[in-house]
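Need a sequence for this fold. Nothing fancy.
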């Protein structure tokens, strides 16, 4: 039998940071609700949850990186919604935030979770923020919990 390493979903002893982009707040507020619900339901205490707000999704990576580097959190969750408009702006913002959150995780060695919607329409964003296609914020919280546990279990290997 191989040795299996995986994460568990009991998060009670870990602290989490959530970074929220203020753009498209009617959608992102729902992602935040979903993320908070996911953390609370898995035993994370209020005092172990920090929420930081930034102007737009483009700004998420820097804040995520700074929080990850602080060493205070088991994982950092980035929440935002980039919705395609009539100009190429969407492509620049969506690409930079995805690369930036990933780079923050790799540089800090702290899981930095990409809970950013990148959609063609407002309807698609609404669907993914608590209606028929689930809640990406809740999913991001689950990934944060699993990754924190997984990395902790790797640290405990003998
Ligand atoms: N930021 C978003 O989070 N979502 C968007 O849809 C968006 N659009 O479409 O422009 C957006 N732009 C702002 C951007 O994230 C930065 O805050 C801005 O460019 C200043 O750096």
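Here you go.
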């Amino acid at each position: 039998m191989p040795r299996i390493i995986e994460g568990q979903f009991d998060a009670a002893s870990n602290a989490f940071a959530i970074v929220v982009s203020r753009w498209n707040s009617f959608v992102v507020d729902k992602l935040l609700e979903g993320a908070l619900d996911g953390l609370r339901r898995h035993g994370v205490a209020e005092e172990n949850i920090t929420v930081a707000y930034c102007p737009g999704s483009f700004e998420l990576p820097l804040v995520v990186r700074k929080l990850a580097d602080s060493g205070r959190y088991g994982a950092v969750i980035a929440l935002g919604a980039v919705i395609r408009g009539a100009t190429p702006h969407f492509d620049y913002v969506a690409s930079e935030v995805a690369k930036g959150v990933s780079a923050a995780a790799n540089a800090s060695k702290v899981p930095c979770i990409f809970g950013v919607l990148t959609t063609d329409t407002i309807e698609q964003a609404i669907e993914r923020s608590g209606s028929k296609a689930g809640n990406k914020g809740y999913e991001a919280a689950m990934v944060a919990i699993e990754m924190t546990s997984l990395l902790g279990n790797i640290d405990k290997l003998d």
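For context: The chain has a mean pLDDT of 95.
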